[in-house]
Amino acid sequence: MAKKKAAAASNAPAEKKYMKPSEIVTFGIGLFGVALLSGWMPDYTMTFFADFAFKGKGFDSAQLATVISSVFGVAGFVGAIMELIIGILVDRTKTSLGKVKPWVGFGAIPFAIISMLVFMAPNTSSFTVATVWMFVIYSLYIAISCAVESPANCFGALCSPNPSERSSAISIASFLRSVGQSGGQVVIIVVPVIMKAIMGQQQYKNAEGQGIDLIISTAVCALGMIIFVMIFFANNKERVPFTTDKVSLIESIKLVFTNKNLLMVSLTKLFGFGRGVYGTVSLYIAVYLLGSKGLKLALMLPMGIGTAVGTLLVNLVLKKFSTKKTFILFCCYGASSLAILYFVSRGIGFNSTLIVPFLILNFFCGIQHGNTNVTPNIMIADCIDEMEYKTGKRQEGLAYAGYGLFSKIASALTKWLAPVLVYTWSGYQFSQSANVAYATQTDDTLNKFLAIYTIIPAIFVVLQFVPILFYDMVGEKKERITAALIEKREAEGKTEAPQETLAEEVAKAVEAQAVEATEDGEQIAE
Amino acid sequence: MAKKDKKGFSAGAYAVVASIVLAVVLVVLSIFTVATKYTGFAPDKVAQAYVDGIVQTGDGYNAYKTTLVSKNMKYGDFIRAAYMRPYVNDEVEQADFVGTGSTQEQEAVDSVYNTMYAYYVELIKTYGYDDYDAVFDNYFKKLVEVRHNVYGDDYMSMDYMFGAFEANVQTYANSLTGTKRVFANDDKTILTEESIGAYQIMFGEMQEVEVDALVDGKKQTVTEKQPVYKLTTTVTSCEELSAEEAKAYVEEYSARIKPVAESGEAKADSFGLTDIDKKHTYKTDMVDAFAKLDCTEDIQGVAKVALEVKTQSGELVATQELYVVKIGKSWYVDNTNIDTSGLYLSQGE
Q1: End-to-end CA distance of chain A
Q2: List of chain B residues whose C-beta atoms are within 8 Å of the C-beta of residue A222
Q3: What does pTM read for this prediction?
Q4: CA distance B213 to chain A (A)
Q5: Structural domain contains residue A387
Q6: What's the number of domains chain A is made of?
Q7: Does residue A505 lie within any of the structural domains?
Q8: CA of B100, closest CA in chain A: separation in Å?
Q9: Would the CB atoms of A219 and B27 count as touching at under 8 Å?
Q10: What is the pLDDT confidence band of residue A415, given thresholds at 50, 70 and 90?
Q11: Whose CA is closest to A253, among A88, A120, A109, A114?
C-alpha cells in the first residue's frame, strides 16, 4: 500500500485527477441547462416576431421582415460587445466562489425571466412601438444570455489544471450541451402534445396560432435551465488559480487579440458564419416538407443525435490526431455530408413520404457539429495556457470572450443572412390570417429552403477550417508548455491537492483500519 | 454537496431557494400571458375574435374554428370527413400537364380558381356561411365539374379541394381590403398590381401612405394618396345566463343540433359511401363527423354577447348578437342560432 501511495505521489501533476466524477457530470448538466433555453430561443424568437407577436395588427409583412432582420443584426452586435464586457468583468471577478460561478449562478435568474418576456409581446397596433419593443427585448435577452452562457462555457478552462482531465470534462460537457440544444426541441413537441390532450385538436391549433405553445415551452425550458444550472452551481468548484496581477483593459485586449492561435480559433467562427442558417430554415423545412411545426424535433433529433455521436467520435479522433487535424477532418466530412443531403433530396424529389431517408442523412450531417462543439473549446483552453506561459497572466474570461466576440459577430451575420435568405431570397409568404399559422409556399420557395438547409451551410463549413491551417498549439509545443506551467504552479504552491480516486480512498481506509487493528489484538482475531 | 463559505453563503441553499422562487415566478408569468393572450378562456374575447375575423376579411370559413363545429374535431378533419370524402378520386390519372409547371398548367389552375371564385361569391350571397352545409356541399360538387371541364380528367384530392377553396377565401378577403403592389426579388418585376378594395371605397378617407412603386425601373418607397380605413370590433355587453336560463338554452340547442348530428348516415348513403376495410371507414367517418357536432352533454354555461363594429370616424356599421357556450375552461361560439349576414359589409353595396 505504501508503495502504491508513493507511486501515486511521484506521478506528474499533469496526470493527477482533481475533479470528483460528479463534478464532471454536473458541469455538463449546467451547460445542458443553459443550452436547454438558449439553444432554441433565437430561431423561435424569429418566428414568434414574424408569425405570432403582432398577428392581426395589420402590419406590412415586408416591413416587418426588414425590421426583424435589423433586430437580429443589432442584437448580434450587442451580444458581441457584451461578450467582451463580460469577459473583462469575469477576469476581474475574484470571489470565494471563483470568477465564473457567480455569473452563472446569479445570472440564471434574470436569464429565465427575460426569456419569458421575449414571448410576451405588447398588445399594440403601433408599428413604431412594436419595432422598439422587438429591438429592446431581444437586445436585452442577448445581453443577459451572454452574461450566463459565456462564463459557463469558459468554466472548462478553470475546472482542472490537468489538460487531459480538462479536455475530458469539456468533451463531456459539450456532449451534454449539444443534448441540451435538442432537449429544448423535445419540450417544443411535448408541450403541444399535452396541450392537445387538454384543449382538443382545434383549440390547440387556435392557441398555436396565438403563440401560446411557445410561451409555455419557454417557461418549461426556463425552469429546467434554473434547476440544472443550480445543480452545477452547488456542486462545482474552480481549481485553476487566477493570477493576481492587475491587468489594464487595453493590455487585456491586446493579450488576447495578439495571440495568433486564439485569433485563428476565433476566426473559424467568422469564416463559417453562414453555417447556422440551416437553424432558421429548419422550422420551415419541418412545417412545409415534413408537414408540422412539431416535426422540427424529428428533423433536429437525428441531427442532435448525430451531434452527440460526433462529440464522442471527436474524443476518439483526438486520441489519434491533434486538435488541428481533427478540426480539418470533421470540416471536410461535414461539407461532404451536407452536399450529399442536398443532391440526394433534389435528385429523388423530397416529399413527406421520404422522411426517413432524409432524417438518416440528417443524422450523418449532425456528426460534424460534434467537432465545432468540442474542439475549439479545447483549443482555447490550450491557448490560455500558451498565454500564461508567455506572459504569466491567465485570462480565461477574456480569452473565451475573444472567441465569443467572433462568435457573436458571426452570429449577427448569420442572423442577418438567415432572414434575408429565408424571408426575402426564397420568396416566403407570411400568414395574414389570425387562425392560420403558416401560409402556403411555392415550389421554388421550398427548393430554396432545401438549399438554405444544406448546400449554403456546406460552403461555409469549408471556409471555416481555413484559419486552422495556421494554428500551431499542438504536439511538442503543447506538451512543453503544459509541463512548464505545472512546474511553475508547483513552485508557487498554487496547485490544489488532486482529488483522491475512489480506489485511493478505499486503500487509505483499509490501511487506517489495518493500523488500528495492529494496535488492538482483539480486532485481529475478529 | 454545497459548503458554506467563510461569510456563511451556502451555494446549496441558494440553489434551492432560487429554483423555488423562479418556479413560482415562471408559473405566474405563464398564467398571466396565457390569460391575456389566449382568447379561448374568455367569452367576450371568443365572440370578439369570431366577429372581427368575419368583418375584417369576410372570412366566415376560418371563423368556424372558434365555434362548436370545432369542439370535438379539428375543423379541417371535419370538412374532410363530412364534405370532401365523397368527391375524392385520387387513383385516376391526372391531365398530362399537371406537375409540369407549364403555362398550360398555370392557366388551367387560374381558370378553375377564377370560375370557382365567381361561384364562391354567389354561394356566400345565396346561403351565407351560417349555412356551411350548403356552402361546402355545393362548392365541392361544382369543383369536380369545373375541374373536369378545364383539365379534362376526373381526378380530385382533398389537397386540391382545400387549395381551391382557401384561394377563393383569400381572394374574397383581398377584394374587401385591397392589395398592395408586390415586387419580385429582382425589385423590378411587378408580380401583383395594387388593387382598391370594397372597404377602402366604402369607408376609406384619403391619406398619404408609403407604398412600393416602380421608379426609374426600380422598386422604391414613395408616398401616395390612398383611401385608408379602420374597422374596430368591440364587445358592448357580455352576460352569463343564469343556471335556469342556461338549461333552457341547452334544451333549445339540443333540439337544433340533433337533426344535424343524426344526418350523417342519410348523407353518406346518398353519396353511396361505405366502409371498405378497417382503414378506409368512409361511411363511419362521415356519420361520426356529424354526430360529433352535438355538444349537448358538454355545455356547462352560456353567455350572451353583443358586439358592434365601427369605422375610424366612429360610424356604426354593424351590430351582432351571439351566444357563446362554456365547455371545460374554453368558450365556443354557438353557430346553430346565429345570423352573421350583417357582418358581410360589402354585400349591401
Answers
A1: 22
A2: 22, 26
A3: 0.72
A4: 14
A5: yes
A6: 1
A7: no
A8: 12
A9: yes
A10: confident
A11: A88
Cβ contact (<8 Å) for A231 and B166?
Answer: no
Relative orientation angle of helices A2-10 and A502-519, to the nearest 10 degrees: 140
User: Comparing C-alpha atoms, which of B243, B219, B237 is closest to residue B323?
Assistant: B237
Question: How high is the pLDDT of residue A433?
Answer: 43
Q: Is the pLDDT of residue A525 over 60?
A: no
Amino acid at A296: K
Residue B215, strand partner residues: B218
Tell me, yes or no, if B28 comes closer than 8 A to chain A by beta carbon.
no
Query: Cell triple for residue A67?
Result: 425590421
Instruction: Compute CA distances A392 → A158, A243, A458, whole Å.
Output: 16, 8, 40
Lowest mean pLDDT among A380-394, B58-72, B278-292: A380-394
How many beta carbons lie within 10 A of that of residue B200, not counting itself? 17
> What residues in B contact A231, CB-CB < 8 Å?
15
**Chain-chain contact of B37 with A212 (C-beta, under 8 angstroms):** yes
Q: Find, among A285, A276, A275, the residue nearest to A335 by Cα.
A: A275
- DSSP string computed for A164-184: HHHHHHHHHHHHHHHHHHHHH
The alpha carbon of residue A483 and the mean position of all alpha carbons in its chain are separated, in whole angstroms, by 30
Q: Give the chain A residue whose CA is nearest to the CA of B59.
A: A433
For residue B281, the cross-strand partners are B275
In 3D space, the residue among A468, A394, A62 whose CA is nearest the CA of residue A243 turns out to be: A394
Contact by Cβ (8 Å): A203, B21: no
**Nearest-by-Cβ selection for A199 from B9, B49, B330:** B330
Q: What is the CATH number of the domain that holds A253?
A: 1.20.1250.20
ipTM of the complex: 0.74
Containing structural domain, residue A51: 21-239+247-430+437-493
Amino acid at residue number B96: D
Q: Which tens digits make up the pLDDT trace of A11-41?
A: 455 567 788 889 999 999 999 999 999 988 8
Inside any domain, residue A513 = no
Element (DSSP H or E) covering residue B232: strand B232-240
C-alpha closest to that of A327 among A350, A305, A343, A310: A310
Sign of the dihedral defined by the CA atoms of residues B343, B346, B347, B349, in that order: positive
